[in-house]
Amino acid sequence: MHRDPGCGCCAKWAAQVQRQLGRQVRVVDDSNRPALQKRAGVPADVSSCHTAIADGMAFEGHVPIEQVQRMLAERPDIAGIAVPGMPTGSPGMEGANGKPYQVFSFDNAGHAAVYAEIDPR
């Protein structure tokens, strides 16, 4: 997982992936993450603070662990999934007053579509 240097919420997300999926996550402080995002096909409008690559698929931002697990199991014909920004209530951004947010899928051409609706309340 490549993160904006020093971002603490990214480490919280990585810890949840390790705990819930049993996958090791290597955290890399990356000041040139936009280059990785471009290679992974992440559209700018769904960008967040970290980008993880697993099994050739990209996971951008605070994607719920259940959605990571779903994508890895179903293997849809997409480049990855993303949660834009840093919504309160998403994994690694827990706290009171969580609000509904969307998970987007994206393809290698940069087209994004709603993949899941999440309500952490």
Write a concise keyword list for the protein shown above.
globular; 121 residues; 3 helices; alpha/beta; seven-stranded mixed sheet; single chain; 26% strand
Structure characterization notes:
By secondary structure, the protein is of the alpha/beta class. It has one domain. Helices cover 26% and strands 26% of the residues. It contains three helices and seven strands. It has helices at residues 8-21, 33-40, 65-74; strands at residues 2-3, 28-29, 50-54, 57-61, 80-83, 101-106, 112-118. It has a seven-stranded mixed sheet with strand order 2-1-3-4-5-6-7, with helices on both faces. It is globular, with a radius of gyration of 13 Å. The protein starts with a strand and ends with a strand. The model has no long low-confidence stretch (mean pLDDT 94).
